[in-house]
Input
Amino acid sequence: MDAGGGRTEEWADVTPDAARRLLTAAVQAFAERGYHATTTRDIAGRAGMSPAALYIHFRTKEDLLHRISGVGHRLARDLLTRARDGSGSAAERLADAVRTFVRWHAEHHTTARVVQYELGALAEDHRAEITELRRETDAAVRSIVEDGVASGEFDVPDVRGTSLALLSLCVDVARWFRDDGKRTPEEVGELYAGLALRMVGHRAAPGADH
Output
């Protein structure tokens, strides 16, 4: 689970090991205290390093947040575009998209809280970059919903608004999910996949579980 600030594969491309440790420590600190209340000394201390060592790998605290946000948003975009481009009906692809997206937010809830709720702390150019990634994420979900409307599977009067509502529902999992809760990430993913299909007015085909 995510008690340690994120699974190893999230930062697999980050080298050297000291930079990876700093990113993990920053995730923990930002999630617990918020970006603005966290100091570089806090982050370095959690990583078992001196404050000066942080600047060897990252120019500023904001640079750390930008790296974390970029990794998280690219993972989210890639999950949803794979679902969009997958085989199957629009209903199957929407359920897959939501199931996978929710499961990621549950499994990586500490990282996801930072990724989703600290956008306002990014510098203007970094925020513009992340905003573009979010547009691509929104577009992937909207494309699936549009496909379902076109095929007659979905009854959605407001495609754009419904797509944003679906994403908001998924993202909010990071805010409340706990590793010691009653539901596993897989169970939450299945629940939300069913909710998503009801939100788009899908009538389940015979034999479907949703």
